[in-house]
Amino acid sequence: MPVLTDVASGVPRAVSLEQEQLYPIREVARLTGVNPVTLRAWERRYGLIVPMRTESGHRLYSLTDIERVRSILGWVERGVAVSKIGRILAKTQPFQALSHIIPNNLVEADYAQWQQQVLAAVNGFDDIRLEQVYGQIFTSYALPVVFQDILMPVWKQLLQRQGQFGGTSEWLFLDGFLRSRVVQRLLLRRDKQPRRVVICAPVGHCRELELLVAALFLSAGQIAVRVLNIGQPFDELAVMCERGKPLALVLFSNHAPVPELPRRLNRLAMSLECRLLLAGDASDLAQESLAGTSVGCLGNEGEVMSQRLKQFLAGSLDT
């Protein structure tokens, strides 16, 4: 049994290569399309990946590392600077980040156990079992944790594997299941809560489920959230708000903000009688460029988004 070393801690440990499914750097490069030089740079300069090492110093990557490489590549292709990706991944993939360095973390271990049950149900296309697991997770964790730390990471993992045979069917199965459950929760809350906020996403800036989950995070307390269909024309948002009279309009985006975004948002804000807020990964990335404007940033984490929305509506949080 070969001896491997955690790069960050320098602690050696014996492990079966077959059990751990570890891959050399040349194989990771083949699987992801990212060349070895870039992989090493992401590790050395930014600490985005932390592979194991053999006694002779050769890097070995787990399946979790490979999924992380694919996530990094996706953000790079969307125009996000590599230096900013670590902060995004720490929020969107908390269960994956350095999971093999801290194996004794009981919380992450419990997340992983539930994720394996979800994956097993999805793999068997077993909607009855998936419904059971879904309900059981809610008995252990609050809603933000259920979606942000357990379900959505599995959804993203399957999304990245659509190129594999059967991968698209598995992702569609889970995506359809989760969308229907989130919509049910949103409708239930909207019927009971009088204060209304509207949320929408520019075309191509997120998947429908990501928008729905963001709406669910925001629909806490006395706030009801209405979700506009993806494809809603940006230039007609002012008309929608004029007629619907919401308390706030939330734009949700997981894309890197383009240079003209602050100007477009400011122009939209001037045409609205309600607050204009930005949420999702773009919110964190655009926060500095929007400082001093009337556009508020909600962030991309469930509890933070909900708290900031309440503060903006109460007038206790300024932009």
How would you describe this protein?
The chain has helices spanning 17-20, 25-32, 36-44, 63-77, 82-92, 106-123, 127-140, 143-160, 167-192, 208-218, 237-244, 261-270, 281-286, 302-314, and strands spanning 3-6, 12-14, 23-24, 52-54, 59-61, 195-200, 223-227, 248-252, 275-279, 296-299. It is of the alpha/beta class and 319 residues long. The chain has 3 domains: 3-78, Multidrug-efflux Transporter Regulator, Chain: A, Domain 2 (Orthogonal Bundle); 106-181, Methyltransferase, Methionine Synthase (B12-binding Domains), Chain A, domain 1; 194-314, Rossmann fold (3-Layer(aba) Sandwich). Strands 2-1-4-5-3 form a 5-stranded antiparallel sheet. It has a 5-stranded parallel sheet with strand order 7-6-8-9-10, with helices on both faces. A hairpin with a 4-residue loop joins β4 and β5. The radius of gyration is 21 Å and the shape is globular. The termini are far apart.
How is the secondary structure organized here?
Blueprint: E1 3-6, E2 12-14, H1 17-20, E3 23-24, H2 25-32, H3 36-44, E4 52-54, E5 59-61, H4 63-77, H5 82-92, H6 106-123, H7 127-140, H8 143-160, H9 167-192, E6 195-200, H10 208-218, E7 223-227, H11 237-244, E8 248-252, H12 261-270, E9 275-279, H13 281-286, E10 296-299, H14 302-314
Parallel strand pairs: 6-7, 6-8, 8-9, 9-10
Antiparallel strand pairs: 1-2, 1-4, 3-5, 4-5
